[in-house]
Amino acid sequence: METARAAWRRLEPVHAMIYFAPEARRRYAELGLSGRAGYFAFRSAAFGRASAELVISTFYNFNPDVVRQAVDGVWETATPQQVLDARYAAADEALRRAKVHELPSLSEVLALTRRAAEAAREHAQGRPLFAAHAALPWPQEPVLQLWHAQTLLREFRGDGHVACLLSEGVGGLEALILHAATGDVPVDFLKASRAWPEEEWTAAEERLRERGLLDGDSLSPEGATLRRHIEDRTDHLALPAYAALGEADCERLADLASPFGRAVVEAGLLKVD
Question: InterPro entries this protein is in (predicted)?
């Protein structure tokens, strides 16, 4: 399980950069989309003309009022296919700027990642964001095939994570607060990006303290145990994809993935403006 998590985490920047790269912002601005409208459209276009309620449900931890405002009229501004085309174009442009296409192990990393992503397609039930992206055709260019494969693995894992949160009675806002309490991500970033009003954030913090999951602004021992359980369970639910590789190939992917993540970071593709 640890090897599978390492393989996913080390390659994850190849997917995640699409939410930060200036190439993405420029591409959706060219379609008349800006800010959160671009983000929600880019990630939900695989559904087709996704409603705000579908985005709220599947994205899970964003303020619903902000989602409704951002998604309102978005598909009149640009069609889902136009958005998908722009997303792939942005991914291609950004990853080439990071010179991912020049890395000598691209073919092997792609082969392993695609095998894992294809295996995940056999376990799509209950994973709506993954299933929507898995139904898209594979791109032709190897660097985009790698991006698409890692996108599938990210959404496969993410849908499983939402299932874990639901099973433990942790709502979207509460999940953000527990995440912030680990210190892994600045609380100001989570507040700004997910756009929950301060009074709702404060009320949710108090609910978590009443449940014994927070001690002040930090995780209580019970909260830390719950967080660890959710992360372990998320890892377990992601295993069907990586189990298809076997232990040796999974270790190989984990070993080869680091230069890809490093290239993305060094190119500045994950910088938050």
Answer: HTH_67
